[in-house]
Amino acid sequence: MDWEHHGVKIVAASTLDSNTPQTAGMTRAAAITHARTGARKLWAGTVVVQPNAKTGPHHHGDLETVLYIVRGRARMRWGEHLEFSGEAGPGDFIYVPPYVPHQEINALPDEPCEAVVVRSGQDPVVVNLNLESPEPAGEGAPTPFHPV
Q1: pLDDT tens string 10-38
Q2: pTM as predicted
Q3: Which end of the chain is more exposed for a tag (fewer CB within 10 A), N or C?
Q4: CA 93 to CA 14: how far, in whole Å?
Q5: Distance separating alpha carbons of residues 126 and 54, to the nearest angstrom
C-alpha cells in the first residue's frame, strides 16, 4: 500500500473550504470531504455563529450530526415547531439525529460560538425550513451568509 499518498491527511485551518451549503446565521467550512481527503463515510468541518445570532431552521436529511463546542455557548432548538431547547458550552457535544428540525443560536451577546461538526455521510445535505422560531424577537436575529 502507498501509505504516503493513501494514509493520514492533515488539513490546515487556513485551507478550510466555505464553498459548502449554508444556512442563514452561520458559516460552515469543510475540512474532511471525499474530494479533499478521500473520506468515504464522514464529513467534518467547522461552524461559527456570530454573537447574538441564530441560524435559520433546517435539517440534514438522513445524516447524523455531532457538534463539539470549542468556544462560546450554543443554544439548540429542535422539534416540529422548535419547541425544545438546550444549551452547550466549551467541551460539550451535541448530537442531532437524522431529519430533526433544529436551529443553532449563539447564547452570548459578545462572543462567537465556534464548533467542530461531523456528519455521517459525504452528501452536503442542508434542508432549510420555513419555520418560525420561538426565540424572542430582537434576540439573535438571523444574519445571511450565502443564499442556498
Answers
A1: 888 888 888 887 777 778 888 998 888 98
A2: 0.82
A3: N
A4: 24
A5: 16
